[in-house]
Structures are given as C-alpha cells and as structure tokens.
Amino acid sequence: MTRPVTDPTEAAALRSESHQLPQLHEPRNPGMALDTDWVARVQANTSAIERRAATLPGRRSLKKAHQAAWLLRAITLIDLTTLSGDDTEGRVRRLCAKARQPVRPDLLEALGMGPITTGAVCVYHEMVPTAVRALEGTDIPVAAVSTGFPAGLSPFRLRLEEIRESVAAGASEIDIVISRRHVLTGDWAALYDEMRQFRDACGEAHVKAILATGELGSLRNVARASLVCMMAGADFIKTSTGKESVNATLPVSLTMIRAIRDYQDATGVKVGYKPAGGISKAKDALTYLALMKDELGDRWLQPDLFRFGASSLLGDIERQLEHHVTGRYSALHRHPAG
Amino acid sequence: MTVQEIFETMDYGPAPESAAAAQEWLERSGRAFGHFIGGQMTAHAGGLDSRNPADGSHLASLSQADAAAIDAAVAAARKAQADWAADGARRGRVLYAMARLVQKHARLLAVLETLENGKPIRESRDIDIPLVARHFYYHAGLARLMEDEMPAQRPHGVCGQIIPWNFPLLMLAWKVAPALAAGNTVVLKPAEDTSLTALFMAEICTQAGVPPGVVNIVTGDGRVGEMIVAHEGIDKIAFTGSTEVGRRIREATAGTGKALTLELGGKSPYIVFDDADLDSAVEGLVDAIWFNQGQVCCAGSRLLVQEGVAERFHDKLRRRMDGLRLGDPLDKCIDVGAMVDPAQLERVSRMVSEGLEADPGAEVHRTGAALPDGGCFYPPTLITGLHPASPLMQDEIFGPVLVGTTFRTPAEAVALANNSRYGLAATVWSENLNLALDVAPKLAAGVVWINATNLFDAAAPFGGLRESGFGREGGPEGLAAYTRPRAEATELSRLRPVEAPAKGAAPSDGLLDRTAKNLVGGKQARPDSGYSTPVWSPDGRLLGHVGQGNAKDIRNAVEAAGTAGAWSRSTGHGRAQILYYLAENLAAREAEFATRLRDLGQVDADGAAAEVAASVDRLFTAAAWADKFDGRAAGVPLRGMALALREPVGVIGALCADEAPLLGFVTVLGAILATGSRAVLIPSEAAPLAAMDLMQVIETSDVPAGVVNIIAGRHEDLAAPLAGHMDVQAVWSFSSSDLSEGIERASAADLKRTWVNHGRGLDWHAPAGGLKPFLEQATEVKTVWVPYGE
C-alpha cells in the first residue's frame, strides 16, 4: 500500500548483507554567503506549528514487527551521551561498551537481527581519548561537545582552540554551541561569522550546531538561527545542550526540519538534524522518526543525517524490544547498564 | 516482512484499530434496526442497508420509515415536549449525562463511525467524538442557564432535524444538543448511508435518562426527510446538507410558519499571503481539504495564493500531498480514508474530468501515494492555473480536490474570495495581523480562520451566508435558533387604505400640492410607473398622493442601497449620532406627525400622539444600541480568540406594518441603521403618508445617500421583486397583506434571509424583547478565529 520512497541506489545499499547500516555520506554542506533577505523572510507561526506537532503522534502508529524494527533503527541513530561533571574514564568506557552492544544479543537473535551499534558516543573534550580508545575497531564515531559548552561564553579564541584540540584528540564530530546573544539581538552576521570559524576549525570533523532553542525566545528565531548556521556550513543543526530548561520539542523540531528542507530546496545540500534532551521514551523516538520520514524523507533516517542526543532513551527502547520478543513488559534491570 | 527487512526499508506497516467491540454491538442488535420512537426501538422493517465504504461489506439492515412511523415519532415528541421544557436544571443534568456517556463509549462510537463512513479512525477518535462530547457538555450548561439568560424566549416545540453523512454523530450533536437544551423535543433523521452511530445514541439517550419521546430517531432516505419537512406537527426544521436540498426545503416550508435553519454547501476560500508561514499554510490545507476526504461543507477548497510565492507554495503543497497515506480507514497510520459511497466517488470523478475538459490549461497534481485496491478511494488532487470562470472554481466538489488560482493584492484576494454564491467559511494566512484582521471582516463568510483552519467548538457559532444557508449552530446564538419569543403574536387582518369618498372629495385645505415621490439614493424620485394613488382621510379629505411603486423602483432602490456600503463599515458611534439626530428632528415635528397619523385614520388623536412619542423613543433606543450590539469573545478551548462578531446583513428590504404606520416603520428603520445595514423600505400600504413624510426628516438628518430608500406601493406588487432580487440579503414582512409564503418561496432562489409575520401582528409599542429581535435579524454572526502565540 505504501509507495516505495527510497531511491534505487539507496535501496540497494540498504539491502546489503550487513545488519549494520551502510555508512552513507552526503557531500558536506559547503555553506553559502549569508543571505539576510532570506533570513528576514523566514516565518514560523507558533500556534500552527504547535497544532501540527500535537497531532503528529496521533497520525502515525507503528505496531508489532514494524515497531520493533523502527526502534532498532532508532538505536542506531542515538548519540549515546554522557555530559556530567562527574564523568570519569571508567564511566566513559562503560558507555562505549554499551554503544558497541546496545541490545542484549539474545534479543537481537530473537528479532532476527545481527549486531547493531549506536550512532555515536558524545562526551566532553577531556573524555575524547578514552572514548576513542574504547571504540577502536568499530565505526562508531566520537563526538565532542565544544566551544565552552553549554553556555558558549568562554573567550572566542579558546573556543576555537577547544575544537582543534578535540579534533586532534580523535573526535570526528564536534557539537558546538552558538552565541545565543547573536540571535536574540538579530546580529545574523556575527552568528554567521562565528559558525564559519567553528566549522573551519573543525577541519574534516563534522560540525553540529547546537542552537539552544530553549533560550532563543521564539520559533521564528529558531528558524532564522537554523538557516544562518546552515548558510555558514553546519553539517547538522541540533536543538539543545540538554542543559536548558526546555530542550527538544516537537514544535522546535518541526521548525528546524522545515528550515533544513528550505535550505535543501535552495542549495541542493542535505543538512542533518539532531534533537537532544528530553527524548527518553521509545514512543517519542518513533514519533520523531515518523516526523523525519514524513517531512524530509527516508534519507533522514540514516545516522549521517539524523541523531538523537539522548542518555536514557536506549533503556526504554530495550524494554520495549524485550516486550516485543516475550509479550511481557520488561524491567530496566534486565538490560545491561551503559 | 521480517524485522530486519523493515529495519532497512523503514516502511510503515498496518496499525489497525480493532473493530471487534463495534461488530459485537452490531451482532447483539441482530444487525437489524428499527426506529427509536417514544423511547423504544420499533421492529426492524427493512428497506435500507448500511455498508462499509472501505470494503463494501454489509454492516446492518435498517428500516425505511413510512408515514405512520413519522406520525408516531412526531406524536411522541409532541407528547413529551411540555414536560421536557418545564425544567432547565433537569435538562442540564440529562445533557451532562449524555456527554459523559459519549465519553464512556468514545472508542466504540469512533470505530462505528469509521466503519460506516470511511473516515480515518484518527479523525473520528481525535476530532469528531471529542467534539460531540464537548457539544453536549456545553449545552448542558446552556440548558441550566437558559431560563435566567433568555427569559423572553421559549422553545419552538417539536423540531425536525435532518443531518448529513459526512459527520454523522457530530451533526447529530450539533442538532440534538441545542434543541434539547432549549426545551424542544426532536425527530431526527440521520443520513441513509450513516445511521449507526445515531442508533447507538438511542441507547445512550435511554441510559442518560432522556425521557421517552424527547429524542426520536427515524431512518431512511430522502423521502423520509421530505415527510418530516412536510409534517404539520413539526414547528422547526433544521437541516444540514446540500444547497440543492436546502433550497427545496425552503420552498416546501414556505408559508407554513415552521422555523428554519439551513447549513448548506460551500466553496470556501483559502487565502495565502506572501508573508505567511508557508509550511504551516500547507499543513493547514491538509486539514482543510483532505480532512474527511474533503467531504466537509466548510472545506477550504478554493486556494488563492499571492503570485510572488505561488510557485514555491504549490511545490511545497505537491510534496506534502505525496506524503499523504491513503488506506483502510481503521488503520491508525493513514491520512485519507474512503469516500462515503460509490455514488459520491463517481460524482467527484465526473465533476473533475468534466471540469478539466472545460479548462485545458489547468495543471493537475494527484498524490503520488498508492491507492488501495477496491473501496471508494479518490486520490487527493490539486488543480492550479484555474480562473474564477472555471466551473471547478465555482461548484462545490465535496471531495479531496483542491482548486486554485493566484492574486496580486489584498483587495484582489478579497474580490476573488467573495466571487462565489456561497459564504460559509474562509481561511487567511498571514503573519501580519494588520492584514489578516483587515481582510477577515471583508470576507463573505460566517466563519473566518486566521492562520488555522477547520477549528470548531460548541461555544463558537458556525454557519453561513448567501447560499451556504442561514442560522448559526453553537454558542448562545445557536441556542437562539431553537427558541422563539414567549409573547404570542396576535392574528392580523388585512388593513386597507381609506377608500375614496363616495360623494366626492371634501374641500382641500388650500395648501400647495405636493408631488408623490420615493426616496432613492438620497434623492426624491418620481415612481417609474408614472401613476400615483390618492390618500384620503376618513372624513373625505384628500391628504396627498403616493407613487405606485413597481419592480423598477425596487431595482433602483436596491442598486442605490448596494452602493452605500460605506455605511456598513462606519462606526457604531457615528451611526448613533445620526440616529440621535433623526430622533431630534422627528421630535421637533411631533405635532405635525401626530396630526398626519390621526388624519390617516388608523388611530385617534391620543393614539397618534402616543405613536409619534414612541417613534421618537424608538429612534433614541436604536441610537443607544448602535455602538453596543457588538458580539462577544467566545470561550473556546484554544490559546487564542474566537470572536463572534455582529456584522450587518447588507441590504434589507422590509414591508412595514400597516397597523402602526409610523412606529412600525421607525422600528425597522432604527434597527437597520443601528446595525449598519442599508434599507429598502416599503411603508404601510394602508397609511403610507406618515412614512413618506419621514423622508424629509431623513434628508435633514445626515443619513448618507442610499442608506435608506423608500418606495411606496402595493405590498403585493413589491414583495415579489424584493424577495426575488439576488442582491438583497434579507426580506422582512410585517405587512397585513398575506405575503409570507410568497416571500419565503421566492427567497429560495438565493436563500436570502427572511423574517415574515405569517399573518400575525406584533405589539409595536412593546415589541417582544424591545429592539433586540430586530437587531439580531439585521446582523449576521461572523466567527473570527484568531489563534495566537509566539
């Protein structure tokens, strides 16, 4: 009943032997000159966006095998994250072990699935070497939050240096935080320049721009900041640090992915999306995946274009998967801790 | 498919809602239903089948009501009515119980609705059924408050209600809840294709303690509807359905004295300005035209996009359309279900193909989504590049087909939007509040949604203008349509002018002769006919002449009123000033008018003085209302406002009372001026000179040209051209001539509003409710929804 949405080459790639998703890679976003006219044109009607977001969970439903499969896919899109002041090397190694084997092998076997991993591991700079070592022999990238995360108010020079050091330490993805004040004062040129320099500092590493949407005041600002960061070459735009009082929400996500779509329409370039913070339930993950599928297409269900920034989501998904296999509701302690 | 395969394809799978409980209920009922009359289900008589349009399967066998069944239902309703009307608090409790029971059976009702109608389960579950419960809750409250808040009103009695198949249970709620709240009893006919949820409601009525006979449900096709419309025991007809059938009902009920409200078709404009949030506007269209497969009377089916963004908007829209999922309506993961039956599917297909033949330049996009095999499915369709002249732009398709064109300026958007025989709803998308709130009042529509679409609530009046029908549903305005004044009108006998004296005229009073003229467009105009009628006093004096107005005078007067639209946009304060001035100027000539009234022979000297004094006061009262009859903000469950505005009806033609030649005229004049409409007034035929004298008062009171037009003549001659004129929005008759049936029948052509006396007179010195009923009749409620938030 459903129209196949994937293009043939992609479908072929998807049907490869491995259960691990093939590492698809789009050309990186080269960015473009700052187009302030376009930025000024951007609109986001909060009320309408909220209404659309509110009906999303009711419009899409996944049952049985489809639910299990989608949840497995969700796991492969998780940036398994620890960003605490009390992180230690031991804690990070434990997390990396979980990233390598996020689901109990017996459950995977029952589901007819081979091994899968999470999309990445996301840590502070100091933990990058530990994570890189712990993930040796896998394709799992290490992402580092950077640029004075979470507030982004350390000296600019040091923020650039922090990026370079993390890249040198082996991080292949850098999650930068933007200066919220540039958005709040409408100084798009400053935001653009900052983002440009962050991206340049990243070199080959991919850069995710954290907008801290909970601090931007309006969805219109979210849309405009998304656009400016993409113009300045962000590979991903990301909602939140996880430290704001409001993190990823469906209305914010809808606003940002509409910006991604507009950017693609104008430039042909696909930019990734990462909602982070507050997504802790399997059901929420399914809603996000449906949102990406419906609004941007299946291509955005791959780890090079979509990630969940989450720490406790995995646990809930594991419980749902066990429920799918056994028919009994599961408990957290039955799944290995991360 | 294996988990691993799905993991790779990331397809959606089936997510069926179980129909087991609904099917079990049908089984328990033997899949055979009679009617619900007097609190009992009658024996199954057959004649009608209920089918699932998604797969054609048979759901139940129903009964085609015959005349005896209708008689029984009406008799049961009549018997129950007085007792039901007696206690508003009790009615409130019963309606509350109905709301609770709808919630308790919410899922079963939703599934049953989807099974029979084909609408997606998401819609019946998340939209229809919650709105049904909300409607009963809201009206439970109105029932409780009615006695205190509307003391001058009483229920009609027995209401005949005929509802469509597109929102079977919601339309039942919209009809039954206000009727019951006001103290009426009902005989309801659900649509022949969709009767099951109504029959389930019969059980809910019993459980909720609705007394036997208060709600009666009879099933069957259009013939049953015709019997209800024609039944003498019914006091009010409420109908939702096609304009064509609404017109026939208007004709059939003409002159019967039955109250009537009609909620009919539409071709509602969906306006997208270049500063809109285009993605949200695209999403709005999904709710506007692909909601319920486009089988929605207020569907935003006419897309008007500002030229500069049209290409981008259409691209976005086409992409969104391709993402729609069609399928089994019981699947929780589809967007578009089945059309209600094969006949509808065939009708829509034919309309579209014929329309496209007529318009070879049109660009068509059909959803790229796969259509399910079998069942009544039609692909969501966008047709752009059309022109207002295209049949597809004018005719209601009532399916998932969006047609569109572009515009350049806000003024052009309004002009295109209003270029329609319909006037139900309109949608405006703009991030500029100045623009949106400027455009909303200019749109000929009963409901306007700003940056949203298809929002409904029990507190917000819903209903149309023009050929979309009349009357409102929801809010106190909707309740009012289920009431009539407590005050009993008196039988009115035909009053005739004083006859010419048999022995020749008495000597004239020696004053200079005056020309008989009408007032048209601010100027005194000779009657087109070239004939005048003498006016005599009872003692044989020739008082003067009035022109013999004809259809051309009416045409000219309507033309003049039509060009005086600025009056309808003027402020209440400004209109009050003019009404006060009118009162002043009439007061200055009280003695002269009293003499005139006495000479005309309908009243004695005391009566004449009293009528003039009352007329002055009536104008003063109208002035008082001019800046106060202003609508309300409805308490809808939304972050935003729903403003129930009172807008002027437009051009109102009124045949004024014979028995109160000055006061009757002034009452009508005052109400029309106060609310901003424009008037074509026919003075008392029996004693026309009092009103004709008033021309001079009007001319000296700064009333703008064309706002008031006065044509004297025989009521019988003038009623027909007035009621038949397509640019007159309402016709009132207080004439002592028997004109009601003719006016109501003629009004069917364009479904203009009528307010006629059915041969019964008002007490003009104390019209029931003061000026209020006149003000209500002179206005249309327009509900403007303004969600907000940043």
UniProtKB/TrEMBL annotation, chain A:
GTP-binding as UniProt keyword: no
EC number: 4.1.2.4
SUPFAM superfamilies assigned: Aldolase (SSF51569)
Any GO molecular function: deoxyribose-phosphate aldolase activity
Catalysed transformations (reactions): 2-deoxy-D-ribose 5-phosphate = D-glyceraldehyde 3-phosphate + acetaldehyde
Keywords from the UniProt entry: Cytoplasm, Lyase, Schiff base
Family matches, as InterPro entries: Aldolase_TIM, DeoC, DeoC/FbaB/LacD_aldolase
EC top class, as a word: lyase
Pfam families for the chain: DeoC
One Gene Ontology term from the biological process aspect of the record: carbohydrate catabolic process
Pathway in which the depicted protein is active: Carbohydrate degradation; 2-deoxy-D-ribose 1-phosphate degradation; D-glyceraldehyde 3-phosphate and acetaldehyde from 2-deoxy-alpha-D-ribose 1-phosphate: step 2/2
Location(s) in or outside the cell: Cytoplasmic granule
Main location: cytoplasm
A GO term from the CC aspect: cytoplasm
Family: Belongs to the DeoC/FbaB aldolase family. DeoC type 2 subfamily.
Protein's name according to its UniProt entry: Deoxyribose-phosphate aldolase
Protein species of origin: Brevirhabdus pacifica
Lineage: Bacteria, Pseudomonadati, Pseudomonadota, Alphaproteobacteria, Rhodobacterales
Automatic annotation (TrEMBL), chain B:
InterPro entries: Ald_DH/histidinol_DH, Ald_DH_C, Ald_DH_CS_GLU, Ald_DH_N, Aldehyde_DH, Aldehyde_DH_dom
GO molecular function: oxidoreductase activity, acting on the aldehyde or oxo group of donors, NAD or NADP as acceptor
Entry-linked Pfam families: Aldedh
Source species, domain of life: Bacteria
Acetylation in keyword set: no
The keyword Ligase belongs to this UniProt entry's keyword annotation: no
UniProt keyword annotations, A-Z: Oxidoreductase
Protein name: Aldehyde dehydrogenase
Source species: Brevirhabdus pacifica
Domain Aldehyde dehydrogenase: start-end pairs: 48-485, 537-758
UniProt family annotation: Belongs to the aldehyde dehydrogenase family.
